[in-house]
Each structure stands twice: as C-alpha cells, then as structure tokens.
Amino acid sequence: MRIIKLTQTTIFLLVSSCYIVVAADDAEQRATIKSIIGQVEVSPDGSGKWRKARANMPVKMGYDLRTFIESSADIELETGH
User: Fold this and answer.
1) Which domain holds residue 39?
2) For the whole model, what pTM was predicted?
3) CA distances from 20 to 46, 54, 79 (A)
4) Where residue 22 sits, what CATH number does that domain have?
5) pLDDT (tens digit, 9 = 90+) per residue, 29-39?
6) How far is CA 13 from the centre of its chain?
7) What is the SS3 assignment for 33?
8) Which tens digits make up the pLDDT trace of 16-60?
9) Residue 76's closest CA among 53, 54, 59, 64?
10) How many domains does the chain have?
C-alpha cells in the first residue's frame, strides 16, 4: 500500500482552501483517510455537498477532498497487491 500526504502548498496559502481529487487508474480502486490535521472535507462523487472527513473514512475515485489552511490528510491507497 502507498501512503500519500495531502497538504496545502505556498500557492494556496492566500486562499481559504484547496481542492484535491482522489484519482485512480481503476474505477474500483479505493483509499482510506488514515489521519487528519485541521479541517478536511469530503464531497462524495463530486456532488458539491461537503461533509467533515474523519480518520479511517473510505474514499474512492470521484470523491473530492479539500483541506483548509494549515490542514492536511494522510491517504492510504489500496493497490490490490
């Protein structure tokens, strides 16, 4: 399994949030939010309806994640191996 850390970059420090799309090569590939620092929200299937993300929350291709200023999330991708 791969773990990636989503954080805001210097470019995004002047805006209230950044948007990150969890993408995958395969529509069935899933991921899990392993940990959260600060304010992170999820919009299932790009619906535009945001809800608070939580640790151990499953996410899949098509979900949008956004982190706010000084916030981050560790995402573990399932590789199927």
Assistant:
1) 2-77
2) 0.63
3) 11, 16, 20
4) 2.60.120
5) 789 999 999 99
6) 18
7) strand
8) 344 445 444 445 678 999 999 999 999 987 778 999 999 999 998
9) 59
10) 1
